[in-house]
Design a protein that fits this description.
two-stranded antiparallel ribbon, alpha+beta, 2 helices, 3-stranded antiparallel β-sheet
């Protein structure tokens, strides 16, 4: 459990209810922290993965997750452990490399 959510890169700090508490010292006098709180997201887990939708009305995902479960079951991802760790430098968007 944590007391606050902190971005270690930017140091923005949020309360657990999503309210922005700190946004650095260079944001300017007209910066309204109430406009930059965290927004609620839709979240589901399946096969050891977490699926998040930022849409207010997310598309149905249950059929996809049922299909995914069939393919992921042999790998038991929820109980895997890191065996090897390496660093790769790719000229690509990190989300496409996963």
């Amino acid at each position: 459990k944590v007391a606050k959510l902190v971005c270690h890169y930017h140091q923005w700090t949020y309360e657990l209810d999503g309210r922005l508490l700190f946004a650095g010292t260079e944001m300017g006098a007209d910066f309204d922290m109430q406009e930059y709180g965290l927004k609620p997201v839709q979240c589901k887990t399946a096969g050891g993965y977490i699926f998040i939708s930022l849409a207010q009305n997310p598309p149905a995902i249950d059929d996809f997750l049922a299909t995914l479960a069939h393919y992921m079951e042999p790998y038991d991802m929820e109980n895997t452990k890191v065996a090897v760790q390496t660093t790769l430098m790719e000229k690509a968007n990190w989300k496409l490399v996963l």
